[in-house]
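Quick one - inputs below.
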Amino acid sequence: MLVARPKKIRWVEAVPPVRVFKPVGVPRCDLEEIVLTVEEFEAIRLKDLENLEQEECAQRMSISRPTFQRILNSAHEKIASMLTHGCALRVEGGTYQLVERHRCPRCEHEFALPESSPELEGEIECPECESALTQAVEKPGRRRRRHGKGWQRG
Ligand SMILES: [Zn+2]
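Output:
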């Protein structure tokens, strides 16, 4: 007998600022809509925009490398299909937990904590050197709004 394994929660650091993309001049009812999950969006953001190695992308999302590869392939296929067939795209759903990244000012170690974590309310300790820290790494969306030059970074 096959027992369905519960899906592992994927960590996601940023959600898209726009959730629905639609070709100009085509009534919505005539459009086929492709749904990209939030973790597929995150896979593209990490690999194709932040240009991280697959191993690091997988770590950032708290999943295995083959799983990351599968999610990224699926995301690429959906976007290729959307561009080729002129579909609308909606970013929605998935199995994920929003996390917030932190950087230790003392040892520079970076780590992520779930956004709903009660630890975020008080003092956070670095898992590497155990020094207390309060420095959250800014989210890409927030960073872009503040400086308006997100695309030119790096
Ligand atoms: Zn540290």
